[in-house]
Structures are given as C-alpha cells and as structure tokens.
Amino acid sequence: xxxxxxxxxxxxxxxxxxxxETLSALVLANARFWPTVVPAMQAELRAWEAPAAAISxxxxxxxxxxxxxxxxxNAEVAATLATLAPRPRRATAIRAIxxxxxxxxxxxxxxELVVEDPLAEGRRLFAPFIDAITAPxxxxxxxxxxxxxxxxxxWGYLCALSERTRSEMFALPAARTVSSVTRExxxxxxxxxxxxxxxPALGDGxxxxxxxxxxAASGLEWREYTAGCASSVLxxxxxxxxxxxxxTTEGHARRTDAAYLAIAAAITILDSxxxxxxxxxxxxxxxxxxxxxxxxxxxxxxLVREALARCGEAPRGAHHAMTLAGVVAxxxxxxxxxxxxxxxxxxxxxxxxxxxxxxxxxxxxxWRAAKRARRxxxxxxxxx
Length: 384
Hints:
Layout: H1 19-47, H2 49-53, H3 58-70, H4 72-79, H5 87-110, H6 118-131, H7 141-144, H8 155-169, H9 175-202, H10 205-214, H11 222-230, H12 233-242, H13 250-274, H14 276-281, H15 296-313, H16 317-332, H17 340-353, H18 357-380
Helix pairs in contact: 1-4, 1-5, 1-16, 3-5, 4-5, 5-8, 5-12, 6-8, 6-9, 9-10, 9-11, 9-12, 9-13, 10-11, 11-13, 12-13, 13-15, 13-16, 15-16, 15-17, 16-17, 16-18
C-alpha cells in the first residue's frame, strides 16, 4: 500500500462490516460448515491419498503425502469459503476448492527444490495451476508457449488436481463470468511464488522489479503486493464460491479479488513473522526480511485497515471480514507470535480488528489448547 493509502477507492464503497455483522457471518458459516462442508471436504482429501502415493519418485511422493496430511488445515480453511455457495452447489464448490488448494500447496513445496533455472521451472510447474481455472476449450499463454509440456514423475498428479478443479469449477453457473479475474489472479500468484522461491538464487531485485511494475495499479506497496499475490489462492477460492451464484457479475468478482489481495498480503506477512525463528535457524530471512526493523507494525496496521475497507466494497463483505479476522486470529495465536520481533505486529493487527477478532481468537486459542492436550495424551500413552 502506498504511504498515502490506496490510490483509488471503488465507487459506491460501503463502510466495513461492523462487529455484529461479522459475528452473524461467523455463526452462519459455522452452521453451514460442520454439517455440509466437513464431510465433503474430508471425502475429497481422502480421494487424493492414492494418487499421491502413486507418484513414482520417492522424494516427490513424500512431499505430496506430507502436504496432503501435514498441511490439510490449509484445505480445511479454504473450504470454509464454500459456505458462501448455495447448498445445491456447495459440494461442487468444495471439490474444486480442495483440489486447487492441494495443487497450490504441493507446488509451494515443489518450487522450493533447487534447480538450475528456477524461473523457467516454476513457470513450467505452475502451468497446470493456471489451466485449472481456464475454461475448457480456451488456450492459455502458458500452454501455447510450451509451459504445459508433459514431463516429470509428478506431472500426472499435478494434471489430475488441475483437471479436477476445472471440471468442478466450470460446473458452477457463473464460472465463465469470473474466469478472467480468476485467471489473472492465478497468474500473479504463480509468478509471485516462482520469484519468491527463486530469490535465494537470483536475489530480491528481480522480485522487486516485477512487483513494482505489475502492482502499480493495485493500491498496495510493492512488498504487500508481492505478499498478496503469493497467497492469492485464497482469492481464487473466494471466486470459485462466487461462481456458485448465477447472479455474480465480473464487477463482483473484481471487488472480491481486490479484498482478498489485501487479506492475502496480511496472511503472508503474518505467516513469515511467526515462522521467523525457524527460518533463521535454517539460515533464511523469510518474507519479513524485506522490511526494516520496526517498520512492520505500522505497515500491518495500514494493511489490515485497507483489507477491511475492501471487504466493505465487496459483495458478502461481512463474510470476508470474518475470514480476515479468522486468519489473523490463527496466526496471532501461533506460538511464534509470542516472539519479541512478532509481538508489536501481532498487537497492531489485533487492534485494527477490535472487537470483531475476539470470538475468532477465543476459538483459535481453544483449538490450539485442545491440540496441545491431545499431543500430551499421546506422548503419555507412548504413541509419539
């Protein structure tokens, strides 16, 4: 975000959702999530266990299985956006969202592997990710340029996840309406991921040049634009959910995408700051290394404020504000959030969301306490 705030505010902006609206959205989402989303989500996750196990390369097979089991929480969070879908089309949206999240999580790990040309390899690997939200019969620039050449032990797994996402998404009534926005979102996500993972080999200059050039009209400062792009799979999930509603317009899609670009930026920065100790132990600076010491609290405060304003401009804004509160609660209740470097940023994010964050924060604290208790019981029983 520029230091003077966003460059332009969308016409007809509404005020951000208040605490009451956000709490109502949380209650409604939970009422839909547990009985209708969880069973379909769990079934979809189970369906990908065999394809992951069938990858012939042992290192890649292990990576796919670790992503599927160790990071399944990502898919669970993504699936919460399917609560926006009308019930008759909710299961379809869930299948598309879960497959896309699994594809993204796998690529996130896959593009961290050291290769001779990280930019070319990242673009090759992310071609199925972009194809996943491309309407059947439409060619992408990636395929036309040879990015979709079939190769690699995991290519079948990548393409299967991609095709699952596409077939389910384009069964939704407004899929073609949102597809151009979703494809733009996928391309910027793929490029940000590729360039971030290439930074250890190529430096940060290539990342900064790309972000400043491409993000000039986004209303975000280049580092926050990069952060938002890197986690823009969340925007893609929101757009899949929007495609479930036949009344969704391209304007709705663009306002939703703008909101999630800011939300995703906050996610990437918070994720990096709570992982800072682990990154440092591996000799890595992480995304927060792009900021000067002491700079982040003010940047986070402004970013959360901007995200809330954009939620107010988007359809179903209270739900998006609730999602923002939920992800901030998740990261700011993480053990890494207690580190001295993280504390001021955590307090800044929470302050901007007061009081709407407290219900989500209470849930996250309870969830983490239950996880610790289960882990303690397993250790006591000799299971771990």
